[in-house]
Design brief:
The chain is built from five helices and six strands; from the N terminus they run αββαβαβαββα. A six-stranded mixed sheet has the order 1-3-4-6-5-2, with helices on both faces. Strand 3, helix 3 and strand 4 form a beta-alpha-beta unit. Helix 3 runs parallel beside helix 4. The protein is globular. It starts with a helix and ends with a helix.
Length: 188
Amino acid sequence: MTANDDRLFKEAMNDVKPLKDTANVVFLQQKPGRPSHRPQEDTGADNFLTTDFLDVIPLDTPLSYKQDGIQQGVLDKLSAGRYQPDASLNLTRAPVETCRQQLFECMQRLERTSIRTVLIIHGKGRHDRSHANIVRSFVARWLAQFPQVQAFCLAQQHHGGAGACYVALKKSEAARVDNGERFARRRR
């Protein structure tokens, strides 16, 4: 670059503003048929996730949870990586309160989509009381508090292993209605 090129570049970029930080939530694939714009989000929901006393989950205990009524096969397929994540949330190196807010906001957004599997990256520490393991323990507690979470478990090594978990979500109301209409058409 010459001095003239540098000057021209600075003039062209003079009114450019940095993008808002969107590195924490990544939608991995676009579902076909979804509208390209999103309506304004309702941020009035109260965050019910707690940061009270926590029983830290030891590092050698893998994260695993399934709601009552969910078959063991769903958890087995989830842990085997047979459901590809459609979105991910990266909580590494963030304070606990920030993780709490980001997880709550992410789950509120996902509830209005047709996304069924999410990868949550919480990080991995070397000690039970490391920050990453504290976040991991809170994430396990918080995910179990969401009614739309059917199951969660340790991620496959290529998705982060012990530093991440897969989360299986219930079908959204829109997806349920769409399925009902599709199957009703087949019966006619």
